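Cross-check.
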Amino acid sequence: MARGWESKDVESQVEATQAPPQNAPPGTKSAEQLYRERQRNDLELSRTRIMNDLASATHPNHRKSLEAALAHLDKKLSELN
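Predicted model, tokenized:
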């Protein structure tokens, strides 16, 4: 009796998950590297926005809040490096 397409597809999926992982081609990045790059990029964008807001802030309390946010972002960036 012939096997259906679904059972062959399921079998190939099971074999693919049980197969040893193949080496990634050179130049590809791991999931952790991609995550760290994304985090760094997000922090740098936030830092740029805070710097722009700080340049136009006039109220002392607002400036103080922005400076605290900037210090926090700088700390996070240094932790990523």
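The CA atoms of residues 40 and 81 lie 9 Å apart. Residues 30-81 form one domain. Passed to J.P. for a second look.
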